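#lab-general

N.A. 3:47 PM
ok so I finally got the sequence cleaned up, no stray characters, all 92 residues accounted for. can someone with queue access submit it? mine expired

B.Y. 3:52 PM
send it over

N.A. 3:53 PM
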Amino acid sequence: MKSAYELAMERLNKSAPTTKLTDQQKKEIADLNEKYQAKIAEREIFLKDKLGEAVGKGDFEAAEQLEKQISSERRALNDELEEKKQAVRNRT
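B.Y. 4:20 PM
back already:
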């Protein structure tokens, strides 16, 4: 008798089978992760400096906008990263 977990995993594998990545694909994905982590860190450092300046001046409206921009740029870069990683995965 199979457990609910085993049955769920079988259904998942039928609807979205797992694919094996080559060593080259793994390396490309690791390189992409590293590159985008650096991009995200660079943007956050730049914008957090601006955020600190805005708070120091008492411009809380600008500070709020910068916080939103940090979040938005982080999300956009993560989305871009996922698209590129998926492109690497889809190559055969």
